[in-house]
Amino acid sequence: MPFSNDYESYVDLFTYTFKEPAFDRMEIGFRILVILFKSISEDFMLFWFFMVVISLALKYYVLKSFNTNNYILVLLFLLYGISLLALHEGTQIRAALAIAFGFTGFRCKNPIYAFVFLSLSVLFHYSAFLFLILYICGYYVKSYKFMWLILVISLATILPMLLNQYLSLLIDFNPLFDLYLENSDNTKVNKYSFTLIFAMLFFIVNFFVGRRLSRYSFLDKDIFNKYNLFSFLYLTSAILLSVLSFSPVLSIRLYELLSLSPFVIIACLYTKLVDYIILQHSDVKLLMLRKILLLILVLMSIHRYIAYYFVNPIINFNIQL
């Protein structure tokens, strides 16, 4: 069967547990899950399958919860399957669980439930602490307004300087930050990479989608507010990808942490409500913009598929007997 590049590391963590030095560096949620599962079974593959099921079930709930058109849901699952599935569920299983819990929290209408799920995400990946900050900011930021766009870009410009100054605090909070920076020393930044180009294209088109959709926010404030929140998440990921270029590994890690957001944005835009808005108000611009946005997501997913399976494979299909 295929194995991810991190497979052996997770096997060691699961098999040796407390005897493995790296186990103590893992997040407390992951450690508790390993210990509890090992009290039931020593089968690592069953453990991995269990985590994958939890992750995919929560992500399915998030995408399905918007009453999205069925054919778009099928397409989104297909695109996820050829792109992020290998990266998250196939390799970064802790991040996969953190993203699943975090985005479930973002989707929750009840703030208490949202806080519970967002807190769970931090227990599986310390970087997910960013989710808590973004959840609070998401109530105030209107990502479709030029004023907020300028403010976010301004903050993003200052962010690298602040990170350089207080980097030791981040390393104390999560020792893996130091590893990300060390790995970045041998990594060159490609400012014209397809990843960055697609990220910025999606961000720009979605900005105008948001401005167009804001005219009809009175029809269903819940869907519009959630669309605005997930758009803010994507705006943040695109900005971080660009401004943290001094540490390519760190910028990619944080970008990937929010990489489910474009899928949720598309799910929001292809609901029966948005179909009704386009039909009732003959909004051809909104119709075309959301089609362009979907096309960009398709291209992003195909690019990831080529990168993850052919250019720089993260899944090893060699079978060792």
Protein traits:
single chain; 17 helices; 321 residues; 72% helix
Your description of this structure?
With 321 residues, the protein is mainly α. The protein has a two-stranded antiparallel ribbon with strand order 1-2. The protein has helices at 7-16, 28-38, 44-64, 70-82, 84-87, 93-107, 111-124, 129-137, 146-165, 167-173, 176-184, 194-213, 221-243, 248-257, 261-269, 272-280, 284-311, and strands at residues 3-4, 315-316. Helices cover 72% and strands 1% of the residues. The mean pLDDT is 84. It has one domain. The longest helix has 28 residues, at 284-311.
| Largest sheet: spatial strand order | 1-2
- By DSSP, the count of extended strands is 2
What is the mean predicted local confidence, pLDDT? Answer: 84
Q: Spans of 5+ residues with little confidence (pLDDT < 50)?
A: none
Gyration radius, in Å: 20 Å
Distance between the termini: 10 Å
Order of helices and strands: EHHHHHHHHHHHHHHHHHE
The coarse overall form would be globular
Integer count of domains = 1
Largest sheet: 2 strands, antiparallel
Level of helix content? over 70%
| Percent range for β-strand residues | under 5%
Q: Give me the secondary-structure category.
A: mainly alpha
Number of helices: 17
Give a brief rundown of this model.
With 321 residues, this protein is mainly alpha-helical. Helices cover 72% and strands 1% of the residues. It has a two-stranded antiparallel sheet.
